């Protein structure tokens, strides 16, 4: 019995170690992303592109050159945005609403110019 | 009234603002200018980062702009040009020189009727931080200004200047006397160090090698500190194998110690340089930082400046901050706290998917093993 426990504990710590090596925490450290889309023209992102960026508090996706409209495409929607988000600026946000799971309780600045947003949130709104 | 204002303008402002060694450098620029025979004279101010190019150009502009019919100081050209705002800069320039509000030139070249008007005017123009000949050409095309006009251009790149200016003035480092004075202004708020600190001050000055930015940052973080703090910090500096100016600035950053102020500094360097103070303050307050305290500490330490309600910081300090963030993780971008370069963001946002799938598969296998 005791032997089993030892095996279990060591297996657990081994798995923990594996997690850290596979980059399970991965992007968990990112606190801010500013992306000038003009500099990369078009970009297509998966719906999980911002997944597990738990600490993300500043996100700005913008066009630096006036009159140029380069977009970030999200063909499969967007599933996750960090609850820690304080500043969200997204020129030409391609979806009609923000992720349904997104909880904007910490947001202090929201700017979605020339976007397709019709309804900011579906479901419960907490302010 | 006008003459009084003019006289006030003529009185050297550099002494009042605590600028050290600027007057003698302006004199040298004037000497160089007097050797240029052409009607419209252009002069380049060249030197390493932090040596005071912009400060000298600014002081020159302040002292002499009143003697010209039109004048303007165009700031941060390299930065604005990277943002694709050269046309806006040119509009700003023409509006100011011709004293017409909201002048908009839609064409790639300056129309002849505007150029004709410019040719009538004696102007003083400063183009600050030019790093490409094309910026110069786009902004003023030919030197179509009136007789006696002066164009001053600052740049870190001598090659760029060689192509566009009549003469180049190389900014020299501060001599030891000037360095001591500037350092003391920041470290003791006086012109000379107290006797007890003389030796330590001289050691500190030697590290800064006459670079005004380094002297200010170094001086202001030692301000008001005990002797033992000075000794330990200077010993630490001595331990650097090849001390360069970045290391000195980095010491100014490390000395901030509390997480709050450091985060504010890094956020400004990576994201909010040139933004309005109230906007940045609202967001950073929202992030839970004590922004008021942070700003005042950073200003005291010469790490940021607030001018025209905008937050500004020196290029070198921004580069140092970028380096700090990059060093958070050298192997993987996703472990960096802040991402600002389009290439890096692209990589992280597109790689995240791969990593996500990878992790899901890994978890699945782990679960299978666990259950088994």
Overview of the molecule:
Chain A has 127 residues and is an alpha/beta fold. Chain A has one domain. In chain A, 16% of the residues lie in helices and 17% in strands. Chain A has one helix and six strands, in the order αββββββ. In chain A, the strands form two sheets. Chain A has a four-stranded parallel β-sheet, with no helix packed on it. In chain A, strands 2-4 form a two-stranded parallel sheet. Chain A is elongated. Chain B is α/β, with parallel strands linked by helices and 372 residues long. Chain B has three domains: 169 residues, Rossmann fold (3-Layer(aba) Sandwich); 79 residues; 67 residues, Arc Repressor Mutant, subunit A (Orthogonal Bundle). Chain B has 19 helices and eight strands. In chain B, helix 3 crosses helix 4, helix 10 crosses helix 11 and helix 10 runs parallel beside helix 12. The longest helix of chain B has 30 residues. Chain B starts with a helix and ends with a helix. The N terminus of chain B is likely disordered. Chains A and B meet through helix 1 and strand 1 of A and helix 15, helix 16, strand 8 and helix 19 of B.
The geometry of chain B reads as globular
The strands making up the biggest β-sheet of chain A line up spatially as 1-3-5-6
Give the overall average pLDDT of chain B: 87
Specify the helix fraction band of chain A: 10-25%
Strand content of chain A: 15-25%
Overall pLDDT confidence of chain A: 79
User: How does the major sheet of chain A shape up?
Assistant: 4 strands, parallel
Q: Which pair has the most extensive contact?
A: A-B, 43 and 40 residues
What is the number of strand segments of chain A? Answer: 6
Q: What gross morphology of chain A would you assign?
A: elongated
- What name goes with the CATH superfamily of the largest domain in chain B? P-loop containing nucleotide triphosphate hydrolases
CATH architecture of the largest domain in chain B: 3-Layer(aba) Sandwich
Poorly predicted sequence stretches spanning 5 or more consecutive residues of chain A: 20-25
Summarize the amount of helix of chain B as a percent range.
55-70%
Main β-sheet description of chain B:
5 strands, parallel
Radius of gyration of CA atoms of chain A, rounded to a whole number = 19 Å
- Give the structural class of chain B: alpha/beta
Low-confidence stretches of chain B: 1-16
């Amino acid at each position: 019995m005791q032997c089993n426990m030892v095996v279990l504990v060591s297996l657990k710590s081994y798995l923990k170690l594996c997690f850290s090596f596979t980059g399970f925490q991965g992007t968990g450290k990112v606190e801010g992303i500013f992306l000038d889309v003009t500099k990369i023209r078009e970009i297509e992102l998966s719906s999980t592109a911002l997944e597990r960026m738990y600490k993300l508090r500043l996100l700005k996706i913008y066009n630096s050159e006036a009159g140029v409209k380069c977009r970030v495409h999200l063909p499969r929607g967007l599933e996750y945005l960090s609850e820690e988000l304080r500043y969200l600026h997204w020129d030409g946000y391609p979806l009609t609403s923000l992720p349904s799971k997104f909880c904007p309780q910490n947001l202090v600045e929201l700017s979605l110019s020339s976007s397709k947003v019709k309804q900011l949130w579906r479901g419960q709104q907490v302010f | 009234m006008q003459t009084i204002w003019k006289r006030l303008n003529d009185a050297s402002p550099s002494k009042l603002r605590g600028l050290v060694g600027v007057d003698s450098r302006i004199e040298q620029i004037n000497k160089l200018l007097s050797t240029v025979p052409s009607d419209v004279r252009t002069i380049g101010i060249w030197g390493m980062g932090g040596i005071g190019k912009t400060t000298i150009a600014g002081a020159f502009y302040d002292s002499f702009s009143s003697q010209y019919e039109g004048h303007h100081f165009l700031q941060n050209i390299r930065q604005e040009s990277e943002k694709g705002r050269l046309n806006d800069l040119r509009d700003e320039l023409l509006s100011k020189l011709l004293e017409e509000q909201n002048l908009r030139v839609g064409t790639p070249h300056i129309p002849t009727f505007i150029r004709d008007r410019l040719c009538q005017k004696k102007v003083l123009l400063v183009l600050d931080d030019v790093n490409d000949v094309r910026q110069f050409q786009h902004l003023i095309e030919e030197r179509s200004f009136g007789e006696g006009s002066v164009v001053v251009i600052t740049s870190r790149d001598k090659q760029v200047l060689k192509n566009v200016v009549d003469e180049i003035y190389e900014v020299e480092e501060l001599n030891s006397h000037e360095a001591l004075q500037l350092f003391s202004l920041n470290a003791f708020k006086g012109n000379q160090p107290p006797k007890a600190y003389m030796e330590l001050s001289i050691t500190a000055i030697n590290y800064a090698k006459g670079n005004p930015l380094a002297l200010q940052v170094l001086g202001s973080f030692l301000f008001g500190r005990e002797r033992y703090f000075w000794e330990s910090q200077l010993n630490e500096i001595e331990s650097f194998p090849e001390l360069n100016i970045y290391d000195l600035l980095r010491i100014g950053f490390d000395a901030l110690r509390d997480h709050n102020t450091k985060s504010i500094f890094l956020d400004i360097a990576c994201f909010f340089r040139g933004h309005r103070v109230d906007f940045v303050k609202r967001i950073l307050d929202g992030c839970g930082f004590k922004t008021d305290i942070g700003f005042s500490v950073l200003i005291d330490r010469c790490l940021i400046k607030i001018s025209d309600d905008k937050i500004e910081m020196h290029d070198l300090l921004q580069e140092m901050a970028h380096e700090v963030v990059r060093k958070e993780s050298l192997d993987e971008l996703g472990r960096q706290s802040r991402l600002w370069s389009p290439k890096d963001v692209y990589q992280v946002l597109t790689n995240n998917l791969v990593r996500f799938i990878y992790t899901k598969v890994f978890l699945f296998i782990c679960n299978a093993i666990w259950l088994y």
